[in-house]
Design a protein that fits this description.
This protein is of the alpha/beta class. A five-stranded mixed β-sheet has the order 3-2-1-4-5, sandwiched between helices. Helix 5 crosses helix 6.
Length: 291
């Protein structure tokens, strides 16, 4: 049985940890409001841009003049997985869920005989992917020191992805991030970036004659790179909100667990202290009777 001194030290230690987790929960809650607002503000623009691209892509179809970002390379031998993670932990399963989604996709592609390579953003996913897919990480993007990741970073990432695509490094690119649903729910999500997926549901034409100036191919040549940057930007913002939501929930659970542990340790401490007092009294009485 632990001594009173050990139990008291343990209670003090857990109380100190509880103060830290409570403070981290409050910080995450404050950051979440800003990150959630940014993610929700970006969604309409990203979705609308996707709709415009889909509408134009449906008109271009499989024509020979279609931009390569839409038409693809004509093969799908090599797949690039762009995985967005954070640099910090203490966020529950936030990072591991993204890595798991990317891992499952990579294993499925490899089972089909495809080559898989990785472009990793953030530090947390690197150890697992480096262990499972040794030698398959071709690019790393450092986010350490970036306080609020934004459009500039999304542009840098997308520029590198398109540079690799134009150099023939890969045929298909996929983006993995965590979509923010609520502080309690974040959904690991994967989507194809390159070539831009063919539209599934394009709204039926109203019958009006529409002429484009310049033509659809020229417009797509400008919009497709921009759309890729916007999709990566959206993923970064969704990730930022998801990280803070997951961190707030994890720290709340840790604070509650610390409180439960403090209560249990206090009960044990009181019982041990009472037993020690009782033993001491018995020894005193026994000594008095011996006299």
């Amino acid at each position: 049985m632990a001594s009173l001194k050990e139990l008291k030290g343990r209670i003090v230690s857990v109380k100190s940890t509880q103060k830290i987790t409570k403070a981290k929960k409050m910080v995450a809650a404050a950051k979440l409001r800003k990150a959630q607002a940014a993610a929700e503000a970006a969604r309409p623009y990203a979705e609308r841009l996707e709709g415009v691209v889909a509408s134009l892509a449906s008109k271009v179809g499989g024509s020979d003049s279609a931009p390569q970002l839409l038409a693809g390379t004509g093969k799908s031998d090599t797949h690039l997985l762009v995985v967005l993670n954070s640099d910090r932990g203490l966020a529950g399963a936030f990072n591991s869920n993204i890595v798991k989604a990317a891992r499952d996709k990579a294993l499925d592609l490899q089972a089909q005989g495809k080559k898989v390579i990785f472009y990793l953003i953030g530090r947390k996913g690197r150890p697992v992917i480096a262990r499972l897919f040794a030698g398959q990480i071709v690019e790393l993007y450092e986010t350490t020191g970036i306080r609020d990741i934004g459009f500039d970073q999304a542009h840098e990432i997308s520029a590198k992805v398109m540079e690799m695509y134009e150099a023939g490094v890969f045929d298909v690119a996929h983006l993995f991030y965590s979509k923010f649903r609520s502080a309690l729910l974040q959904e690991a999500t994967g989507q194809q970036l390159i070539p831009v997926p063919a539209p599934v549901d394009v709204p039926a034409s109203s019958g009006a004659a529409v002429e484009y100036e310049p033509d659809e191919e020229a417009i797509l040549a400008d919009l497709l790179p921009r759309n890729i940057t916007i999709q990566i930007f959206k993923g970064l913002l969704e990730n930022a909100a998801s990280e803070q939501g997951a961190s707030m929930t994890a720290m709340d659970n840790a604070t509650r667990n610390a409180g439960d542990l403090i209560n249990k340790l206090t009960i044990v401490y009181n019982r041990t202290r009472q037993a020690a007092i009782t033993t001491e009294l018995i020894e005193i009485i026994a000594g008095a009777e011996a006299l």
